[in-house]
């Protein structure tokens, strides 16, 4: 999903990448890894990063709109197509200090990625590799202890019963883990 950009994950969140210039006024098409292009409207400024790890910005957002699965973004300092073409392929970063506040019972996806997952008995199930959204709720994709094992766990209050800085505790309903393993 996320491409190979080198940045400080403690300070920034990789939102997506600029796919190409759009039009003649300096707009760019941005693919957001969350699959929710409307989220970009929540931010006032973003940073860009190239593949060598050089950070650019901040870039103030003048306006944005959705176009299918992409966001069309106009940065204040990018005023023509030539400038827009110069930033094609760059990663789009948000300073974590600029994340909007969310209620205590909600979470940002990046807060779960990489966390260890154990069941209520303490059995290690693996680590959260990614999250995807269904029509009803988010689903954790857990890379299991075996390299080819993948466990899908719905994100609900009834299933995710505990969280620490590095670990999620789950209480899956009977049969869920067996369903994932195909046994």
The largest beta-sheet arranges its strands as 1-2-5-4-3-6
Order of helices and strands: EEEEEHEEEEEEEH
The CATH C-level name of the largest domain is: Mainly Beta
The span between the termini is 29 Å
Shape: elongated
Q: How much helix, percentage-wise, in residues?
A: under 10%
What is the CATH superfamily classification of the largest domain? Answer: RimM
- Cα-atom Rg, whole angstroms? 19 Å
What does this structure look like?
- There is one protein chain.
- The chain is mostly beta strands and 183 residues long.
- It folds into 2 domains: 12-98, RimM (Elongation Factor Tu (Ef-tu), domain 3, Beta Barrel), CATH 2.40.30; 109-181, PRC-barrel domain (SH3 type barrels, Roll), CATH 2.30.30.240.
- 7% of the residues lie in helices and 43% in strands.
- It contains 2 helices and 12 strands, in the order βββββαβββββββα.
- It has helices at residues 81-86, 176-181, and strands spanning 12-22, 27-32, 45-49, 55-67, 70-75, 91-95, 116-119, 124-133, 138-143, 150-154, 160-163, 167-170.
- Strands 1-2-5-4-3-6 form a 6-stranded antiparallel beta barrel.
- Strand 11 (160-163) and strand 12 (167-170) form a beta hairpin.
- It is elongated.
- The two termini are 29 Å apart.
């Amino acid at each position: 999903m996320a491409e190979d950009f080198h940045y400080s994950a403690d300070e920034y969140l990789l939102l997506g990448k600029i796919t190409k210039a759009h039009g003649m006024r300096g707009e760019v098409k941005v693919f957001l890894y969350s699959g929710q292009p409307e989220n970009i409207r929540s931010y006032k400024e973003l940073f860009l990063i190239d593949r060598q790890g050089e950070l650019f910005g901040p870039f103030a957002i003048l306006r944005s709109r959705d176009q299918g699965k992409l966001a069309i973004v106009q940065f204040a300092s990018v005023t023509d197509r030539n400038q827009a073409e110069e930033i094609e392929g760059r990663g789009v970063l948000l300073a974590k200090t600029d994340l909007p506040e969310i209620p205590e019972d909600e979470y940002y996806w990046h807060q779960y990625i990489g966390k260890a997952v154990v069941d209520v008995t303490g059995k290690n199930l693996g680590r959260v590799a990614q999250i995807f959204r269904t029509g009803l709720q988010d689903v954790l994709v857990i890379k299991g202890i075996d390299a080819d094992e993948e466990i899908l766990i719905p994100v609900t209050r009834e299933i995710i019963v505990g969280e620490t800085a590095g670990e999620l505790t789950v209480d899956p309903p009977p049969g869920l883990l067996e369903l994932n393993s195909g046994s």
